[in-house]
Write a structure and sequence with these properties.
The complex is a heterodimer of chains A (about 525) and B (about 300).
Chain A (H helix, E strand, L loop, with lengths): L1 H20 L7 H4 L5 H10 L2 H8 L4 E2 L18 H5 L7 H15 L5 E7 L4 H17 L2 E7 L1 H10 L4 E6 L7 H4 L17 H12 L3 H18 L3 E13 L24 E6 L14 H10 L4 E3 L5 E3 L2 E6 L5 E6 L4 E3 L5 E4 L2 H12 L10 H4 L2 E8 L2 E6 L6 H4 L10 H7 L16 E7 L3 E6 L6 H6 L5 E6 L3 H9 L5 E3 L2 H7 L5 E14 L7
Parallel strand pairs in A: 2-3, 2-4, 6-17
Antiparallel strand pairs in A: 1-5, 4-19, 5-18, 5-19, 7-8, 9-10, 10-14, 11-12, 13-14, 15-16, 16-17
Helix pairs in contact in A: 3-6, 4-7, 10-11
Chain B lengths: L1 H28 L12 H10 L6 H13 L15 H36 L4 H15 L2 H15 L12 H32 L2 H8 L4 H29 L3 H7 L4 H10 L3 H29 L1 H9 L1
Helix pairs in contact in B: 1-12, 4-5, 4-7, 4-9, 4-12, 5-7, 6-7, 6-10, 7-9, 9-12, 10-11, 11-12, 12-13
Classes of the chains: A alpha+beta (about 525), B mainly alpha (about 300).
Chain lengths: ~525, ~300
């Protein structure tokens, strides 16, 4: 009886806690307004010493100069990087920051301005370090800063609800075009524009860029939009672009890093069996439901699309043998290779890859039941409709010519799916190596969740013989390792061929043969809650 | 005795039911959802809630879950390995954690008992001091420090054992993690055994046994150890459960796909079904262990059984 009473009491306390917790945020109405003040935001943008900040991260990260990262997109006319054309929109100037701060204090009639800085504790060491440093720089200028440490999911939930002041967040580009960033901050995007930045000028520039078919003009609109967002309004404050330091065993070649697309490991060569390190496991093998880089890399290993991205980000045909395009560049007709096959785990041919597999896959991608996070992907590519004309002919109609269309076909969400196999597998589809089919250069040989996944060469894939001639690996193993210290020991012992380094390990290994300082596409910025309090 | 056991089993089942309900409520209170993601739109989130039945009221979900659970269906994972059956995930990973934990417990018990007995029998001598020093170090040094030291010296420098867990040679590659995990239980068991043994050795009935002329080793095994081990068994239960349910840190360092890591990831990712399953498995193991210890207690020490039955 006593025990029962204790349990009831515990439940009662629990219910009480729920009732009391309620909603936070918006509790200090006086503070809410401060981020609507432009001078507050400008003080913030000039306060941060980004060069020193990235030096302390020491992992190949670089100081951000705008919301568009380096190496994302090139000028369609001159080929110059977006950042070269735009120049830096942010700068470190304490005096200027203090000036803005003083002005802001005067306008708001306050002596102190408090910022609650939200950041994620399980988003990597660099995020924690960066948040602490940003807080330091803001305090140098005169702000009072409280660090609000939350798990990533909670951080995202708080941002969705508008229950935050300033948050250190990031965006990874989905494709090599400024639009992947610029779409985030338009006033109609309530999913990503957490601070509810609302600028008619910015919206107009982005809309104009997306409407025009003149690629040079489009470029100029995006340049103008970024200036609106960062230089004029300081609505979102760029901090740093993520790097990644790693060591690749000398002799192992063919790993292609793409800062604005999925890394390509298909051409790994130099050893018969290569073991690569990943710090996260595959979340979902289904190429149309997957959302994370690790799963996408796995998909590109054993599956293939109409095109593939090569070193430098240029596309080449993959499962498509040839293609034709009409005069106004709105209708593309692809001819699927005759020697493209679906292959089972044992290496047996299941069926040829047909245009119907693409039609089915694309219908599935946009279907409501699937609720794919990349359901909008075809829209981004300006795709209006698609159909399989016959077994080997796939026709795609665009709403307008698109400069990114062919490159976007290399993205896993657009890969084909064999309907018969998918139906036969039902709910079990893509939950193991046995429940997927290969149509790419490799076959998924095994997958032990949390431990490793292994690929073996697909002899039925059309470039298999060239691949062997180039010294390509027969077996590629991805080992899931979260701890960088033991991973480094394992690398030095010769058991794995790559290792990801943490900032602390960089100095000791900078001169090691095979050290790589790669620049990633992730841009970390401060999202400022301007108009989105207490929903 | 049977009545006592039946009563205990029923109470355990009721406790588990309450635990499940509390877990469900706590999950619901957790900030965020499994579908908080930069790239999901509101409309898609709504669709996903509907797809996985998360749009239904808490109690409906709870009873549905409890019903499915009786059939062995623990739902699917939302965020870690999407659409995987949670029962399979937990089963695979629990096996590895039990292997490491079991090995660690074995090492810990053997060395703990040896240290404790040695210390008690040589009370206040240098052996006692040495054993105590080892225990103190064992309790105060975190397992990850031991793990990294072992990795560096034994595996990396000397090359005697593999650095990381390897599916192809599970036994050999689990020795280092097991040693690293066993350090703290060794110390705890040693300390308990020592103090209990000293108490028993100083008691009147041992004086009686000694005066009756019973041989020394026989006295220690049948009279001293049997009495000294009763409290030790109580602490061993929770220690064992702790070890079997996996250590997230050790698993991370040695690259072991165990349940400790799974639970931490599940909490971070808000993967409700996986979190509930892991926490529930933990609870089941704990309660079963407690039940087992209680019953064992009765067998070792008849006084407990008799007093409880009288009540």
């Amino acid at each position: 009886m006593k025990k029962l009473l204790t349990v009831l009491l515990a439940l009662l306390i629990l219910v009480g806690m729920t009732a009391c917790s309620g909603k936070k945020g918006g509790d200090d109405a006086a503070d809410v307004v401060i981020f609507q003040n432009e001078n507050v935001r400008k003080a913030m943008i000039y306060a941060i010493d980004r060069d020193t900040l990235v030096k302390s991260l020491n992992d190949g990260s670089i100081a951000a100069e705008g919301i568009i990262p380096w190496k994302l997109a090139a000028n369609p006319v001159s080929g110059a990087d977006f950042r070269e054309d735009q120049g830096s929109l942010v700068g470190y100037d304490v005096d200027k920051a203090k000036e803005y701060f003083a002005k802001a204090c005067e306008e708001l009639g306050k002596d102190t301005l408090t910022i609650n800085l939200l950041y994620g504790t399980n988003e990597g060491d660099s995020v924690i370090k960066a948040a602490e440093q940003v807080a330091y720089y803001l305090e140098e200028v005169g702000f009072e800063v409280n660090l609000v440490a939350k798990q990533k999911k909670e951080r995202l939930a708080l941002m969705t609800d508008g229950d935050y002041d300033v948050a250190l967040t990031r965006w990874g580009p989905d494709y090599a075009d400024p639009q992947t960033y610029m779409d985030l901050f338009v006033s109609t995007n309530t999913s990503n524009n957490s601070g509810r930045y609302n600028s008619a000028e910015y919206d107009a520039n982005v809309a104009a860029a997306e409407a025009t078919t003149d690629m040079a003009e489009r470029w100029q609109y995006f340049l103008a939009a970024e200036r609106n967002l960062v230089a004029d309004d300081a609505a979102d404050i760029p901090v740093f672009q993520a790097g990644g330091a790693m060591i690749i065993r000398p002799g192992v070649t063919g790993i292609q890093f793409h800062s604005a697309a999925v890394d390509n490991y298909r051409h790994v060569a130099g050893k018969e069996a290569v073991t690569l390190v990943t710090n996260t496991d595959i979340i979902y093998l289904d190429n149309q439901v997957a959302t994370d880089g690790t799963s996408f890399i796995a998909d590109t290993m054993f599956m293939a699309g109409l095109t593939e991205l090569e070193e430098g980000g240029n596309w080449k045909l993959d499962l498509a043998e040839s293609y034709e395009v009409n005069d106004d560049a709105t209708v593309y007709t692809f001819k699927i290779r005759d020697d493209a096959y679906w292959v089972t785990k044992d290496g047996d041919v299941y069926a040829p890859v047909t245009a119907y597999d693409f039609e089915f896959a694309w219908n599935r991608l946009v279907s409501e039941e699937l609720a794919s996070e990349y359901g909008w992907w075809l829209d981004t590519m300006s795709v209006e409709s698609w159909k399989a004309v016959d077994d080997k002919t796939f026709e795609v109609t665009l709403t307008a010519p698109s400069g990114i269309f062919m490159g976007c076909l290399a993205f896993p969400s657009t890969f084909p799916i064999n309907e018969e196999f998918l139906t036969a597998q039902g709910d079990q589809y893509a939950t193991s190596a046995d429940t997927v089919l290969a149509c790419g250069p490799f076959i998924l040989d095994s997958w032990t969740p949390g431990y490793s996944y292994e690929f073996k060469k697909n002899d039925m894939y059309y470039f298999a013989s060239d691949y062997v001639a180039d010294g390509g690996a027969d077996k590629v193993v991805f080992r899931v390792l979260e701890d960088t210290q033991t991973a480094l020991m394992e690398y030095e012992a010769g058991n794995i061929d790559t290792v990801i380094l943490s900032g602390e390990q960089v100095d000791a290994n900078k001169n090691v043969d095979g050290y790589v300082d790669r620049l990633q596409g992730y841009l970390f910025y401060l999202s400022v809650n301007i108009n989105h309090y207490g929903e | 005795m049977r009545k006592y056991i039946i009563k205990r089993v029923l109470i355990s089942l009721a406790t588990l039911f309450v635990i499940l309900l509390v877990l469900f409520i706590l999950m619901d209170l957790m900030p965020g959802t499994p579908f908080n993601d930069e790239k999901l739109t509101e409309a898609q989130k709504t669709l996903l809630y509907a797809k996985y039945g998360l749009d239904r009221p808490l109690l409906t979900r709870f009873f549905l879950y409890a019903k499915n659970m009786l059939k062995g269906d623990l739902g699917v994972s939302y965020a870690i390995n999407k659409n995987f059956a949670v029962s399979d995930m937990v089963k695979d990973r629990l096996g590895i954690s039990i292997a490491v934990g079991g090995m660690a417990m074995l090492i810990g018990t053997v060395f703990g008992l040896i240290l404790g007995i040695l210390a008690a029998l040589n009370h206040n001598s240098w052996i006692d001091n040495l054993c105590s020093a080892i225990s103190v170090i064992g309790v105060s040094v975190p397992s990850y420090v031991c793990a990294l030291l072992l990795c560096y010296f034994i595996a990396y420098r000397l090359g005697w054992l593999p650095i990381l867990y390897n599916v192809e040679q599970p036994f050999i590659s689990l020795i280092l993690p097991a040693i690293a995990l066993s350090v703290s239980p060794t110390a705890n068991i040693a300390r308990f055994t020592r103090s209990e043994m000293i108490d028993v050795l100083n008691s009147d009935y041992i004086l009686l046994v000694q005066s009756k002329g019973v041989r020394n080793w026989k006295m220690i095994i049948t009279h001293v150890l049997r009495n000294a081990l009763i409290p030790v068994i109580t602490v061993m239960g929770p220690i064992l459960v702790n070890l079997l349910t996996g250590s997230s840190v050790i698993e991370k360092i040695f690259g072991i796909p165990g349940i400790g890591r799974l639970m931490i990831t599940a909490i971070q990712e808000n993967d409700y079904n996986v979190t509930i399953a892991c926490a529930f498995v933990y609870s089941v193991m704990y309660i079963v262990m407690m039940l087992f210890v209680d019953i064992l207690y009765g067998i070792i020490d008849p006084r407990i059984r008799i007093t409880k039955e009288e009540k």
